[in-house]
Amino acid sequence: MPNSSLPSPNVNVKLRVKAKEEKKKKKKEEEEEEEEEEEYKQLCHAATKIQATFRGHAARKQTAANQKEEDELSKELEKLDPKDELADIDLSDPDLHKAATKIQASFRGHKVRKETDGTETEAKD
């Protein structure tokens, strides 16, 4: 009499086939995950390259704009040449002395008021 507790040979074959199919399925999933991970790495690398290229472009563009602005300012400064204007001033002019005295008096008053405000706040504390 056959032992009923042992599985039949067909069941063992079916179990082995099923196990092999599961192994293949698992291996295929792992390979797909690896491919997806590799693709993700490539996309990140490409994005980094694009960002670096754009940042370089923006920096070069900004440098060129700064250089152009600097050149324009230099040209304007050359046009203003203060030496020519100072040569035309008559230092013995009495109006010039009055104006200089007025500017000095205004500045000295400003300076004293500023010092006075500073000492008043310290006295209140």
Could you explain how this protein is built, in words?
The chain is an all-alpha fold and 125 residues long. Helices cover 87% and strands 0% of the residues. It has two domains: 78 residues; 36 residues. The N and C termini lie far apart (112 Å). The mean pLDDT is 87.
Secondary structure elements and their pairing?
Elements: H1 9-80, H2 82-87, H3 94-124
Describe, in short, the structure shown.
The chain has helices at residues 9-80, 82-87, 94-124.
Derived from helix and strand composition plus strand pairing, the structural class reads mainly alpha
How much helix, percentage-wise, in residues?
A: over 70%
String of helices and strands = HHH
Determine Rg (CA atoms, Å): 44 Å
Estimate nothing, just give the exact number of structural domains.
2
Tally the helices: what do you get? 3
